[in-house]
């Protein structure tokens, strides 16, 4: 943390990782570090008893909240020791992420050269002028490029933190944390849509959420609309209408997309035969699995297999 830290830039991502550790046992230990043991936030709140910059650890995730200062004025905030610490941490393998004008701090540390990044819309042109070898993207929530993740700041720091959490702990935990924090799940538009567990959840219908949770937990089981109506404690007709209104798709299609998500991980991460993958992901047999996969992806399931040395996959 730097002098003038923005409280929401700090608190949003902190809440994501603290909730994951406290309620779900995620392997995070939070340290609040600064070059001095006390700083004053941009809102006037004094933060005291801060930790000194820790020893370099390549397994760490370093978050740099914004300060509200424009990029052209941020250089005075980063002293020589902090700059060197950031550089050495990155080269040791640490993941580094910034919120809002914290991106300018990474630029001052020399970590944005020839990389894509983003920042608060108010600072985009200023950041581009200060660091011309950097590609500063406007109109996105967050960007990841070679171990550096930057966000547009304020509440988008939560979106970025949820994405980082998903990389560490999987999509289900990220979805659970988002629901705990009562936030909409959004994507940057630059990243591939990697998780069906995070899709179609940007609504506040408790009945539909309950049905979606049940489908995710029973993805391989045969399920009828009547079964789902009992889960949601409503009629089949009411559930169909509510589900379509909340998500834009039917319960059946949502179930198929969940099954394809499970199958995608099994195809890419295991050497299981397609028949076994079909059963584990809820498809009746390999033939049905191939048909649905081809319909949605346009290629056969074999195209999702990892390439083995010396072998070609068609």
Commentary on this structure:
This protein is of the alpha/beta class and 314 residues long. The chain has two domains: 7-181, Rossmann fold; 200-314, Homeodomain-like (Arc Repressor Mutant, subunit A, Orthogonal Bundle), CATH 1.10.10. It is 44% helix and 9% strand. The chain contains twelve helices and eight strands. The chain has helices at residues 7-24, 80-91, 102-108, 124-130, 156-169, 171-181, 206-217, 225-232, 236-247, 251-269, 274-280, 286-297, and strands at residues 38-40, 46-48, 61-64, 95-99, 116-118, 135-137, 142-145, 148-151. The strands form three sheets. The chain has a four-stranded mixed sheet, sandwiched between helices. A two-stranded antiparallel ribbon has the order 1-2. Strands 5-6 form a two-stranded parallel sheet. A hairpin with a 2-residue loop joins strand 7 (142-145) and strand 8 (148-151). Helix 1 (7-24) runs parallel beside helix 5, helix 1 crosses helix 6 (171-181) and helix 5 (156-169) runs antiparallel to helix 6. The protein starts with 6 loop residues before the first helix and ends in a 17-residue tail after the last helix. Residues 188-194 and 307-314 have low confidence and may be disordered.
């Amino acid at each position: 943390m730097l002098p003038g830290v923005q409280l929401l830039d700090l608190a949003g991502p902190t809440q994501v990782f603290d909730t994951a550790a406290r309620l779900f046992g995620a392997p995070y230990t939070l340290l609040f570090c600064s070059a001095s043991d006390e700083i004053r936030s941009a809102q006037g709140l004094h933060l005291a008893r801060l930790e000194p910059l820790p020893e370099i650890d390549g397994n760490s995730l370093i978050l740099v909240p914004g300060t509200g200062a424009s990029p052209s004025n941020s250089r005075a905030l980063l002293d020589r020791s902090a700059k060197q610490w950031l550089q050495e941490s990155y080269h040791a393998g640490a993941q580094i992420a910034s919120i809002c004008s914290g991106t300018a701090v990474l630029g001052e540390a020399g970590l944005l050269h020839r990389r894509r990044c983003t920042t608060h819309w108010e600072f985009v042109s200023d950041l581009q002028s200060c660091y011309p070898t950097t590609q500063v993207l406007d109109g996105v929530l967050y960007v990841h490029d070679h171990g550096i993740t930057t966000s547009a700041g304020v509440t988008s720091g939560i979106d970025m933190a949820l994405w980082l959490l998903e990389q560490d702990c999987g999509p289900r935990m990220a979805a659970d944390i988002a629901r705990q924090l009562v936030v909409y799940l959004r994507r940057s538009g630059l990243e591939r849509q990697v998780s069906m567990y995070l899709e179609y959840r940007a609504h506040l219908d408790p009945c539909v959420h309950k049905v979606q949770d049940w489908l995710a937990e029973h993805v391989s089981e045969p399920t009828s609309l009547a079964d789902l109506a009992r889960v949601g404690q409503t009629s089949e007709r009411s559930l169909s209408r509510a589900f379509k209104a909340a998500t834009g798709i039917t319960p059946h299609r949502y179930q198929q997309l969940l099954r394809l998500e499970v199958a995608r991980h099994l195809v890419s991460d295991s050497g299981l035969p397609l028949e076994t993958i079909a059963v584990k992901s809820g498809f009746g047999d390999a033939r049905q699995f191939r048909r649905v996969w081809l319909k949605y992806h346009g290629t056969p399931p074999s195209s999702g297999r990892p390439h083995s040395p010396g072998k070609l996959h068609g």
